[in-house]
Structures are given as structure tokens and as C-alpha cells.
Amino acid sequence: MEKTWRWFGKKDPITLQMLRQIGVEGIVTALHEVKNGDVWTYEAIMDLKNYIEAAGLRWSVVESLPVMESIKYGGPDRDELIEKYKISLANLGKAGVKTVCYNFMPVLDWARTDLYHTWADGGTSLYFDKVEFCYFERYILKREGAEKDYTDEENAKADEMSKHMTKEDNDRMVENIIIKTQGFVNGNISEEDFDPVGKFRSLLALYKDIDRDALRENMRYFLSAIMPTCDEWGMNMCVHPDDPPMQLLGLPRIVTCDEDIEWFLNAVDNPHNGLTFCCGSLSAGAQNDIPELARKYAKRTHFVHLRSTNVEPNGNFIEADHLAGRANLIEVCRIFEEQNPGLPMRVDHGRCILGDEKGSFNAGYSFHGRMLALGKMDGVMATIKYMNANK
Q1: Phi/psi of residue 297, each to 5°?
Q2: Catalytic residue among 278, 279, 333, 352
Q3: Is 240 tagged catalytic?
Q4: Fewest beta carbons within 10 Å, which of 8, 102, 188, 212?
Q5: Cα–chain center distance at 74
Q6: Residue 365 annotated in active site
Q7: Choosing from 305, 322, 333, 356, which is the catalytic residue?
């Protein structure tokens, strides 16, 4: 697999020169300065592409060309937004950047409750706690009917939490769930928002009448509309699984498991309609066998995220070491190297180690932690190639 790295543009404190020195071959990035819904111009794409190539690297994957909420819930302007999306796709195709990772998750594209969960060795990683998320929904967001999505035990523990949570505790939870994890990726919420909770409630309200079937139909509509452009320019669209792969916030989630993946691939059966195989997101769902899914969908995968998780019996999960956890990344690498070699791969997220927590890195996107993970995965892939060559 091609070793790639998610890089956040020219202002990223991790420079392209640093990445080349640690063995990165391809860059995963986006035009983060472009407002969501606006066209990506050919000139802007080429400017960034030339900048990357001048450092001896290539722009391998776009992550992401955002799909606007109105497209997801089927708003009145969705056709206009889809037409703009198609123009951006065509411009990327003209520039030779052929793979686009996107998501179709309503409102919140990934969720964690603790961004610096401490390990015994002093490092940290991302963590999701169901009781804390229950508390967030019921006591901060005050979502009507939220208690129905949790067990009696989870609701009781959230009630107990409410007795000692301070304003500072609540502010930190809002920052972890709807600001720090969203604002740096052209998300719906930014650190400049005066009332992030109010804005979040208004976004949720847009999906009041959208159930699982309706969201699926809107995804099919979007993919059907853009496939002619993908065919013309050889563009590979690869949807990112829902993170975590479970229902949250009363919203439907439609890329969570084998049945979901099979549905969207068959709904628009075109080789350009594919999957971002995110081992971390998928492994956060106890229902998913990651190597089994890799074997089944290797040929329809256009991009791989290597990350692993440990899921606790109560549904909580922590992002694990890349050589541990339930994703079995060694076997996943073997499958992809044998069935669809050459795919772009990036180590997705990484622990904070060796002072990463003091750097101005985006949540989950440390430098030393990801560099260590990349070294481990590079060793795994080199071993697999050696063993395959000497069978």
C-alpha cells in the first residue's frame, strides 16, 4: 500500500519536509480554506498540488470534499449543491487527483468524549464513554427523548453524573464532542461559534423527519447524480464508515456494518462508488469482523485507514495500539496487499506521546504517535511483501 498522511495544508505545523523524512509517499488533504458548498476551482487545486509535488510528494487522496447537510437531508437546494460538487469533482479529475474520501453522517462526523484518555505509560488516546455521551445528550443538549436510546443503568449513571458536573466540566464536554473534533475538518461547528450547543440543536432539527430509509435514499440520489462525472474523469468516491458505527443523537447512521456496506454498493453499482475501509471506525462496533469485511470488500475499497480499537462490554471504546485491538491490522494488511495492492493507506489517528499533547495538533492527529504507528505498519507491510515473495 502507498504510505500516506493526513495533512491539513500549508499552515499545518507538521511540514511536508518532515513527512518526507519519515517515509510518507502520498498526502491526504483538502482545500480547507474553501467554504463548504463552494466550488473548488482548478487553479486552487493545482496550486496545492504543485506545492505538494515540489516537496517530492504526491496528492493521493482528497479528504474531504464535504457533502453539505442539505444534500444529506434532501433540502430544496440539494440539486444546486450537487451541481457544484460535480464541478469540483471535474476540476480534481482535470488536475489528476482521482480519489475522494467523504462521509454521509448527519451533523456529527465523529464522536469521542475524551480526547486525552491516559494510558498506564503516560500516553493518551481518544475514548468514547456511553454514559458521558448520555449525560451530554440529556443534560447539555437536552434532546427530547434521548433517554429512550440508553439503558436504565446508563440513564441512572448519567443522573448521578449530573450531581457533580460543574460548568467547566460541561464546557469541556461540549468542546470535546462538538468543537475540537469537528472544527478543523470543514465541520458544522467552529471554535468561533458563540453558541455551539444552540447551533448543534438547530442542525439536529433539520433531520427531524429523516429516518434510516430516507437517508439511504438521499445517499443513493447523491451518488447516482455524481457517477456520470466520476465515469468521465475516472474519479473514485469512497465513503467513510460512520464513526462510531452506531446510532447517535437520534440520527440515522447508514454505514455501520456489512449489511449497510452491501446496500450502498449495490444501490449504485458502479466501480467508482467505493469504500474507505476505516478499520478503526468499523472495529468500534462489536458487530463487525474487520478481516472478514476486508476480504469481502477489498475490490470495492479505494482507500484504507489503519487504526484499531478495544471495545468494552458496556460499549465504551478506546483507540488502541496499531498492533493491538480487535481490528487485527496485520491480517487486514495481508488481505489488501494480496487482493488490491497499491491502495493509498494512512495511519488514522495516533496516540499522544513524547510531548505531542503540547503541540498545536488537531485532535487525534499527533505527530510522534502517528509516526510510531506508521513505522509499525510499514514494518508489517514489508514483512508481508517479503513473505509473499518467498513463498
Answers
A1: -115, 15
A2: 278
A3: yes
A4: 212
A5: 22
A6: yes
A7: 305
Query: What's the 3-state SS for 140-156?
Result: HCCCCCHHHHCCHHHHH
Residues 6+ apart with CB under 8 A from 356: 366, 367, 368, 369
211 is catalytic: no
Residue 255 above 90 pLDDT? yes
> Of the residues 135, 272, 349, 356, which is catalytic?
349
Q: Which among 106-115, 180-189, 328-337, 356-365 has the top mean pLDDT? A: 328-337
Q: What is the pTM of this model?
A: 0.96
Half-sphere exposure of 101 (CA within 13 A, CB side): 28
Q: Specify the DSSP element, H or E, that contains 244.
A: none
Residues near 314 by beta carbon (within 8 Å), at least 6 away in sequence: 130
Amino acid in position 205: A
* Residue keyed to cell 469541556: 172
305 catalytic, yes or no? yes
Q: In whole angstroms, how far apart are CA 209 and each of 24, 242, 252, 294?
A: 44, 20, 11, 34
What DSSP designation does 251 have? B
3-state secondary structure of 28: strand
Helix, coil or strand: residue 230 = helix
Sign of the Cα pseudo-torsion (276, 261, 307, 246, in order): positive
Please indicate whether residue 360 or residue 142 has the higher confidence score (pLDDT). 142
- The pLDDT tens digits for 144-202 are 999 999 999 999 999 999 999 999 999 999 999 988 877 656 566 665 657 889 999 99
Say how far apart CA 307 and CA 292 lie, in whole Å.
16
> Which is catalytic among the residues 117, 240, 302, 322?
240
Alpha carbons 1 and 119: distance in angstroms, whole number: 30
Of residues 57, 39, 35, the one with CA closest to residue 48: 57
In order of 147, 149, 159, the CA distances from 152 in angstroms are 8, 10, 10
> Which of 248, 249, 245, 247 is closest to 277 using CA atoms?
245
Tens digit of each residue's pLDDT (9 = 90 or more) over 269-309? 999 999 999 999 999 999 999 999 999 999 999 999 999 99
Helices (H), the chain: 16-21, 42-54, 69-73, 78-95, 130-135, 152-162, 167-174, 196-205, 212-233, 258-267, 279-283, 290-297, 329-339, 368-389
